[in-house]
Every structure is written in C-alpha cells, then in structure tokens.
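Got a spare moment? Tell me how you read both lines of this record:
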Amino acid sequence: MTKIKKRYGKWGGYLEKLIYEKPKRTIEKENVVTEKEYYTEEYHSKVLVKDYYTRADNEFFIMPSAPDNIYMYAGIALMILISLFILLREFKGVAHNILFYIFFYCLGAFSIVYYYTCPKKELVLNRLEGLITVPNTLYFKAYTMPFQDALAAWSVKNSGVLPTSPRLSLFHPNGFTSRDVMGFYVIEDWSFIVWFMDKNRPLPPGSAFDEYRQADFERRKEAGFPMPLYPSSIPTPEATPEQQAERKRIGGW
C-alpha cells in the first residue's frame, strides 16, 4: 500500500490503525440475522434504514450489503427514455442510429439483470487470523488481505460539485480502486474495525458479543494477555472489574 500513499501524498485522508474513539455503532443481538433471513423481501426494506449483520462473534464479523435498487430503477428509466427517444425521432422522420439504441438498451438491460443476479457483497472481518475481506465492484471477486496491510481513507464523491457525505473507504491491493464500507461515521466505524481486529483486546461494545466475551477472555488469558496489536486513544476494558484485574496481573496492562 506504500505506492498508494506516494501517489496521493501524505495528507490523502488516510486513517492510522488506531482506535480513535468509542464506536457509535454498537452491534446489538437483535440486529444479527441469518444469511437466509437477510436476503428475504422482509429485510430488503429494513436494511435501507437500519444495518443488519449475518455474523458477530469472537471470530468473525460479517456485514452484508443489500442489492442497490438504483440499478433496477436506472435500468428501467434508461430503457423507457430510449423508447421515447425512438418514438420521437420516428414521429419527426429522423434517421435512427441503431448502434446507439442497442448500446443503451443493453446497458439498461444489464442494470436490471445485475440487480437480480448481484453476487453477495460482504465486509468480512476475521479476528483470529487477522484477515479482512472487502467486496468488489459488479461481478468481480471480493479481495482478502492481511488487516495489517489494509489502507483506509475518507471518501467523498464528486468533491466540489454536490459532494456526498464522507464514507469509510478501503483500498484494493491493486492500488487504484477502493470500496466504501459501513456507514457515514467514518472515524467511529474505523475505530470499531480496528478494535475488533485487535485480537489481543476485549471484544467491542454490543450485546451481540456478550455471549462470546468469556470465551474470548479465556483465549487471551491462555496466551498470557499479550499487548494490543494497535494503539488506542480510549480505554478498552474487560467486561468485569475482576477480569480487568486479572489482565493487569498477568499481562501487565
């Protein structure tokens, strides 16, 4: 990822692997559903206003992305517009450019087909192995990399002309493309990712993790409570004062 930083400069909006602040995103148990449930019509409308997850435990965190309706609507709109354009030119007796029509009809048809055949888009955090999997564009295969090599940055589309809200963006190993993940709380969401991916720290806040905290504590205790992999600007305490005291006694932190 060094070549990316060289290309965009020191102040390219990059985020260090640091827990900057307490995440606003708390992973609640009621927001964790099965993969089968997530892709039903019932949840299709829900995910537009609320985030859901298909796995959240002491090993993996998986956040899927629902198919974007814009592909279907854009495809239908494009095909309707081309049809009206053809009728208008026919009415005026103007010659048609067949290749022009074919191109945009195919583009509209592709958008509709993609909406129904879009592969699963999932952000996958593998806590124990230190791997992160980021969804790719269209039908391209998702890419997996060691988290220590991942590069995150602020992402603002159309800067200067109707700019969008900042998003958390993860760069592809190719050094040219990136993918926006999670929501609009850039610093908080990145802090959550770093916290979860630091397997030497307790699990982040959220009731979804509560039933796994003891097992995670025992794993870290068996390893001697090694020092955190990444720094933090905030405390990341254990679930109970007793566990905190034991970590201090054994691990020294």
User: Anything to note?
Assistant: The longest strand covers residues 60-65. The CA atoms of residues 169 and 179 lie 5 Å apart. The chain has a mean pLDDT of 86. The helical segments are 2-8, 35-38, 41-46, 69-92, 98-117, 186-197, 213-222, 241-251.
